[in-house]
Amino acid sequence: MTKRLKVISSIMAVFLILTTLTLVASASWYGSTMNWSANLNSEFRTKTRYFDGNHIGWEATCSTADGSNGYYKISLYRQGALFDKKVSSTGWLPTNGFGKHDFWNSGGPGNYYFVLERNGNKTRITSNDVKMFSWD
Q: What whole-number distance in Å separates Cα of residue 131 and Cα of residue 31?
């Protein structure tokens, strides 16, 4: 094999490896809305969704019906065969305005759901801009 052919083969091998790594990079993204009336309950649970990354995030621009400011707690749960497991990190996000929370090292690919909780203010919280995502 000539030196030129070896160089071309090496370049092609590197290109194939980089292309393969790019294709298997994990990322999931879901968009949603939220219409949460705390008059009915103080907890809001999202649908269970599959995320293929190691880190999972939530972001939303929320508003309250009466314009009041407050916070809600957000937790992430991994669905299990026998029981669900809470991912260790918990965040507090504003009920009026933009908020984002990242759950680092959530446990890898699997089925997850978010649980939002709040105390006190019973006004309706809405968002037309909820994003749930994962990455590696």
A: 5
The count of other CB atoms within 10 Å of the CB of residue 83 is: 7
Q: What number of CA atoms fall less than 13 Å from residue 98's CA on the CB side?
A: 1
21-43 confidence digits (pLDDT tens): 334 456 799 999 999 886 656 88
Residues 74-108 have pLDDT tens digits of 999 999 999 999 997 899 999 999 999 999 998 89
